[in-house]
Amino acid sequence: MSGCGSSSQTASPENEPQTIKFAFSQINPTDTFFQDAAANFEKANPGTKIELVKLPTETAPQTITTQLQGGSAADVLSIFSGQGQTGSMTGFAKANLLLELNDPEFSTTLPKSIEKLFKYNDKVYAVPVANMPAGLIFNQAKAQEIGVKLDATSSFDDLLKQCTVARDKGVTLTALAGTVPGNPGILTMALASSTVYGPNPEWNADRIAGKTTFAGDKGWQQAVGGVKQMFDAGCFQEGAAGAGFDALNSGMGQGKALGFFAPGAATTAIANATKGAVNPVILPMPAPGASQTYLGTTSELALAGNAKTKSPNLVKKFLKSLTTKEGAEGLAKGLGAIPVNLGDYQLPSGYAPIADFYKQDTVRPLGYNEWPSGKVYDSLGKGITAMITGQKSPDDVLKDMDAAWGN
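^ that's the sequence the OP posted. Answer follows.
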């Protein structure tokens, strides 16, 4: 990959190479939104070339981290915003591995509500791809066919009962990719949107101040305990702890599972992958003991430039093209998501069940993007898998998260 020279952020456009490499991953192999964005840029800028480097989804964060640290990363990179995951922006920015996006357009187009996830020391180092709700990607048509009743108003007890109904029909309500920490992690975070961040949007600040802990917080106990209740109720497929991402797409595509937990873009990905045979919706995740259900949302997908690129101006020009109204809406439409500046954008059809959550402002950002490092979220995801195999208790998982936090 490119980017083996020293940083040249002051290079003039006419002196720098007009070919850059763009490394990214996509869960659904049929998605083309990044490819389309690159092709549109090349068409609008004759003489430029963007070489695409597609990485395996499961290993992309580790691969990009290794390549950035080793000086062999692509010029443009798909990373995570904030600092709560492996491959997150803040860690790279601290290590001077990312190109500072110092043109005014990057700051002015970044919504205030999420700007801290894309800035380090008040400087912009990444641009958002889109905003997505996070919850249960659900095949409502198949569910109705077999008598499973679940919608945006269902309670956690309703969900547990429907797990049994689905099992009796030979179908699993939800598939789980236990070998990929982010999947059990996002399930737990969807629960915590209602038990933790709904009642207290400033929970992370309280944790930083030492006013609370994961293990000592009732909301976190309910969220992690809720996953255990789901496992005990047979909500997950057999062998869930050893399953990968393929179990999610194939489970729903083949009718073996009614749903799985993921950001909302998966509704479009599944519809595309099955050529319209399955058109899932996204449902909010009800939680045990919560007085109100909140919808978790995420703007974690981000794009950044390599600090060692030989074409900094071209990199910034490409990233800037994706922050325009046309560019942002193109990515959102292709991804099946929402532009970060929502405006009057038409929500994807699969988002119909959760539209009122946006209208009523009962949404909460998934809190892990502000955690001190990816170790905490990794500890959560791996801990949940260990919990469903009987190796850890819910309390063990929460104590491990506190240890990973560093206190």
